Amino acid sequence: MKIAILDLYDNHANEGMRCIKELISANLDAIEYSVFDVRGKGELPDLSFDAYISSGGPGDPTEYNQLWSDAWAAWITSLLVFNQENSHKKKYALLICHSFQLMCCQLKIGKTSLRHSPSFGILPVHLTSDGLADPILSGLNDPFYTVDSRSFQVLAGSDEIEEPYKILAIEKERSYVSYERAIMAVRFSDEIIGTQFHPEADPIGMGLYFKQPAKQAQIIAEHGQVKYSEMMDSLYDPERLSKTYSFIIPSFLEIVYQHSAVKL
Q1: What is the DSSP letter of 47?
Q2: Separation CA 104–CA 125 (nearest Å)
Q3: What are phi and psi of 131, to 5 degrees?
Q4: 3-class state of residue 159 by DSSP
Q5: What is the CATH number of the domain that holds 135?
Q6: Mean per-residue pLDDT for 173-182?
Q7: What one-character DSSP code corresponds to residue 189?
Q8: Average pLDDT over residues 23-41
């Protein structure tokens, strides 16, 4: 089985790529993966892969970049067209955070905009009725917990999200503010799913990362000591991040593997 990882971090320091690679390597033996530096070098994969994972990354998802914006849009369009034209062999994709926002912009799903303040921490996410039935999310608690780190958001707004798209999860309840809750996961097709959170985040690695003096000081400066302490406590709760980490991407890979084993 061949997986393409699309790196959208634009050479910024991150834990996402490490986590994605480790999840792929840990869950399947008969697998190989290739990494494509989308924003740094304008690299995009062809259609020879069984599945694709497109990462998160910094910046405004509505901002056009001459090096890669059109190429990324052409790539995801080619996947959608391929799946429409092939009834047996399918291509699967998981789109994370920045990639999720790019997809929503491309398909004109909801409204993508800057948040009133950045969302950061290990936060609850609520499943919709479609999410409770989705094979990638159905084994999670409602709410489940995950790393949420973003300055932008996708809101449904006044527009109804219509078939074939399905909202699978929404942002945590905030009774103390009047802001609309963001869309946190969408089923774009039977083969393509996206999350506005980070399902790849692992508690041990993230804990070591957040304990680094420079990173700790940055988080406290940007979000406060209370937020930092709450996040560190949540990292090691077995019912929170560990559950999400061990379920979503492994479930995605298992579905791809079963399809590939049967069809190839």
Answers
A1: T
A2: 19
A3: -65, -40
A4: coil
A5: 3.40.50.880
A6: 75
A7: S
A8: 89
Largest CA distance in the chain: 53
Q: Mean pLDDT, the chain, as a whole number?
A: 91
Residue 237 inside a domain? The answer is: no
Rg (CA), the chain: 18
The answer to whether residue 53 scores a pLDDT higher than 80 is: yes
Inter-axis angle of helices 225-235 and 203-211, nearest 10: 150
Residues in Cβ contact with 86 at an 8 Å cutoff, skipping those fewer than 6 apart: none
Among candidates 63, 11, 14, 56, which has minimal Cα distance to 37?
A: 11
186-206 per-position pLDDT tens digit: 999 999 999 999 999 998 888
Low-confidence winner among 61-70, 88-97, 174-183, 216-225 (lowest mean pLDDT): 174-183
Q: Which domain, by its residues, includes 185? A: 2-115+124-201+243-263
For residue 247, being part of any structural domain is answered with: yes
Number of domains, the chain: 1
Q: Decide if 235 contacts 241 (C-beta within 8 A).
A: yes
Question: Measured between alpha carbons, how far is residue 240 from residues 187, 216, 219, 257 in Å?
Answer: 23, 21, 20, 26
Q: What is the pLDDT of residues 79-133, one digit of tens each?
A: 999 999 998 889 999 999 999 999 999 999 999 999 988 888 888 999 999 999 9
Range 222-225 contact pairs with CB under 8 angstroms and sequence separation of 24 or more: 222/118, 222/120, 223/118, 223/120, 223/121
Work out whether strand 92-96 and strand 144-155 pair parallel, antiparallel, or are unpaired: unpaired
* CA distance readout (Å), 77 to 83, 107, 125, 167, 175: 10, 10, 29, 20, 39
Using alpha carbons, list the distances in angstroms from residue 178 to 118, 146, 174, 181, 234: 16, 23, 8, 9, 26
Question: Could you tell me if residue 225 is inside a domain?
Answer: no
**In contact, 91 and 42? CB cutoff 8 Å:** no
Backbone angles phi, psi at 118, to 5 degrees: -60, 145
